[in-house]
Amino acid sequence: MRFVKYVRPVAVPAVIISAVAPKELNISDSLSIKGVAKTVAANAMSYYSGTPEKFVDLPQPYYWWQAGALMGSMLDYSHYTGDHSYDKLIARGLLDQVGPDFDYMLPTHFGQEGNDDQAFWGMSVMAAAERNFPQPDPNVPGWLDMGANIFDSLAGRWNTTACQGGLLWQIFASNPNGLDYKNTVSNGGFFQIAARLARATGNKTYSDWAEKVWDWTEAIGMIDKFGNVYDGAHASKDCKDTNPVTFSYSASIYIYGAAVMADVTQDKKWTERTERMVEASRSFFSPFENATNIMYEHACEQVDKCNQDMRSFKAYFSRFVYAAARYVPSIKPAIEELWHTSVEAAAKTCTGGASGTQCSHKWYTGAFDGNPGLGQEMSALETIQGLLALDAEAPLKGGEIKTVRAFADQNAVKGDSETASGPAPTPTSESDSAAGSQTKAGTQTSGALRRRTVPVKGWW
After folding, report:
1. Which domains does the chain have, with CATH numbers?
2. 16-50: buried (b, 16+ CB within 10 Å) or exposed (e) per residue?
3. pTM for the full model?
């Protein structure tokens, strides 16, 4: 990896935002949106006890993957609002989890790490790369390089022993049930990361892989002709037993990947695929006649069967659909129709707890439902702050992507610098990237760029 030193950028003053109670939200006023986002972001971060000096796992019952998802939500918060007060904490959270091979395969979390978990950290890492989010540790590769490492790790587990391909849900034999299930979240995360790397680097190998994963998902029947994205199927059944359950986050992961591919390829098929999936996603709105255009998780919400994971799904649904509109503007009317109504409904539920601002899960109730949690806060946060997505700077690519060492509010001090990294590690061929494609489930292989871990203290 090549680093070229540049002049350090001028420090950017921190944006001062006044907190606003969610019930006071005015979706036509960007300052109001930012103020409400500040309030809800603080609520979400109250579940995370890490510091700028140390990552700390989320408390039970939240899993490791949701910490990666939370970092993604907070990256959005920083980028959309201009409030960088959490940036050092986010950077530490991401960097403390890189693992010995800088691909977010962290031995201490192998017991709960599947392909989908790694992909969620990967999508957050890609967001950091596309925004030149500060990476202060010179002994760790840049965000883009680590995104490529994650891609190679996932590609190395492409499994052709059944279903003609696809990623299994789980990686290790310690999670045996998931070793017989190929799910759309794992494969969709891989697809989206490939698409984003294709745009960020211009490397056709990544776009070829994105095409391959999409084609496989569609051919196996996990995406139907109407754009519905189903949960998965069993390898032991040769993926002939598609589970017809649909979740909002599964759909949105593919929606954003398809939208990015529309930008990368300029091929109308990707625009049409994005539009079709957004149209199919109308099923996640209007649970009752008196709750028109209000978002809900239809697989579980009305019957009170949503677990802690599922209560966060609307966060990623909103995150990725808002982002997709940048590349496929034709979905903007659907966002205005569906998401704007949902934003106001979500804000009305954020009246709980001692603060009077905690959010809840059932937005169609019009009030706090007595069921707070991290997923509820993240869902409200991403749905509200996403209103600002298209006003923020677009994701960077090519030579625009640099490794930035200094934080926005940091004055010039000795050792601070900005560097531009060379291109992300380039797989020499599809077969080289998927060196483990014929291996048994659970085998971990990767040919990505690796650097020795060197513990470093005091980045800032």
Report:
1. 3-430 (1.50.10.20)
2. ebeebebeebebeeeebbbbbbbbbbbbbbebbeb
3. 0.89
